């Protein structure tokens, strides 16, 4: 399992999480928000999945990504303890 704090250290991954917090999206929909190649976005999604911040499910030929609110909440609770 990846480190969720390292995963959110990247600006692009934070924007992906912010987008997924609004609605579930396909990788193509996510990629359309950036000037990055689709393989580049796939790499970011893989890191977020390894950190358990994002999950996906297959719908037809697409993978639909969603934020893992439970993991994000754990991170927020930890940070609240520090401040």
Sum up the structure in keywords:
83 residues, Arc Repressor Mutant, subunit A, three-stranded antiparallel sheet, 5 helices, globular
Average pLDDT works out at 94
Structural class: alpha+beta
For the termini, the CA-CA separation is 26 Å
- In CATH, the architecture is Orthogonal Bundle
Strand content: 15-25%
Report the CATH superfamily.
Answer: Winged helix-like DNA-binding domain superfamily/Winged helix DNA-binding domain
Identify low-pLDDT runs: none
Spatial shape: globular
- The number of distinct β-strands equals 3
Structural notes for this entry:
This protein has 83 residues and is α+β, with helices and mostly antiparallel strands. The chain has a single domain, classed as Arc Repressor Mutant, subunit A (Orthogonal Bundle). Helix content is 58%, strand content 17%. It has 5 helices and 3 strands; from the N terminus they run H-H-E-H-H-E-E-H. The protein has helices at residues 4-7, 11-22, 27-31, 38-50, 69-82, and strands spanning 25-26, 54-59, 62-67. It has a 3-stranded antiparallel β-sheet. A hairpin with a 2-residue loop joins strand 2 (54-59) and strand 3. The longest helix is centred in the C-terminal third of the chain and has 14 residues, at 69-82. 20% of the residues are buried. The model has no long low-confidence stretch (mean pLDDT 94).
């Amino acid at each position: 399992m990846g480190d969720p704090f390292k995963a959110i250290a990247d600006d692009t991954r934070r924007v992906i999480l912010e987008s997924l917090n609004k609605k579930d999206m396909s990788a193509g929909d996510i990629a359309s928000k950036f000037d990055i190649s689709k393989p580049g976005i796939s790499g970011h999604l893989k890191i977020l999945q390894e950190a358990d911040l994002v999950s996906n499910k297959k719908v037809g030929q697409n993978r639909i990504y969603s934020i893992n609110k439970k993991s994000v909440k754990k991170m927020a609770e930890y940070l609240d303890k520090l401040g």
